[in-house]
Amino acid sequence: MAEIAALAPQDGEASIVAVVIDCAVHNAGDKHALVTMLEHLCVFVNALEMLHPGNKIVLVLAGRTSSEIVFPEVSAAEAVLQRFAPGHVRSVLESRIFEFVQMDLANVRSASSDVHSQTWWQLSSALSLALCFLNKSVVKLPALRPRALVLARHMDTPTQYVPLMNIVFTAQKMRLPIDAVMVECPSSAFLQQAAHLSSGLFLDAALGALSQILVSTCIADAYAREHMLLPSLDRVDYAAICFCHQREISSGLVCSACLSVFCEYAPKCSTCGTVFDKLGESRGHTMSPGAAASQEPHDDAARGPLRERDTGAAFAMEIETQIVRGAAAAAAAAAPMYS
Q: Which residue, among 216, 212, 176, has the nearest Cα to 194 in the 3D structure?
C-alpha cells in the first residue's frame, strides 16, 4: 500500500484538459447534434472539477474555416493560477459557440473557391492551438498533467493528414496523450493513429451516451488509467495520404531523406527539396517504392536508399521468400563440408 501511495498523484499534481469540439455545420441536423453534445460536455466539465480543485479545462472550437480558443478567456499564464467555475464554462459555451458557428458559416458562403466545401472541419489547426496553450500552461506550472480530448462528428479530410501527423509527433515528445471520441460518425483513420501514437484512447460513442463515455473513461488521468480496464483498438488503420495529391494510398514512393510519401515519381521532393536519382539507381538519395505506413522520421543512421517493400500479405510473402532463399543459400554453403 505504501508503494501505491507513493506513485499516486500528489495534491499539487492536477490535470489540464484541452477539449477540441467539432463545431462544423453542414446541415440542419448538425446544429441539433451540436447542442446535445454540449449538454453532455458540461457533465464532463463538472465531473473534472470535482475530481481535483486544481484541474483546468481548455475549450477549442473547430469549424470548417477556422478554430478558436473560447475558454479560458485569459492567457495561459493567468489561466493556470485561476480556478475555473463549471457554471461559467457553460455560459461561455452557450454564448460563444453559436456566434462562432454563424461566423464560420458566413466565411464558407463568402469563400470564392471550393476549398472549404471539401474540408469537413479544421482538426489540425484546433489541435495546434490546444497544444500551444497546454505547453504554455505547463511551462508556467510544471505540476500540471496535460492531455487533449477530441470530440469528432465528421470524417477525415485528406489535406489535414500531414499537419496532423506533425502535431502527433509533437504530442509524443510532450508525453501528452490525445483521446478521440467519434460521436455517431464514421471511424477516423487519422485520429486512430493520433490516439495510438500518443498513448491515448480512441472510442466510438452514441450521442445519447456521450457523457457516460467521457466520465467513465476519458476523465481518468495517466495514473488512474494504469489501474483501469480500458477499451483498446484491435487494429489501427495506418492508411497514409500521399503528399502530392492528398490521396489515400496503401503503397507508394518514399523519399529516403524525409520519408515523404508520393503516389507518382518526381525528380525532386516537394517537401525537403532533395533531388532524386532515377528509379533503380542506388547512389545518393532515391525515391524508391516503399510501404506508406508510419511517417515518423528515423535516425540518420537508418536513412538512405529504400528497398522495395509491400504491405499486408505481400509483405509477409516477401519475408517468407527471403527466409526460404536464406535457408537454401546456407544449405548450399554447408554442402561441401559434408561431401
A: 176
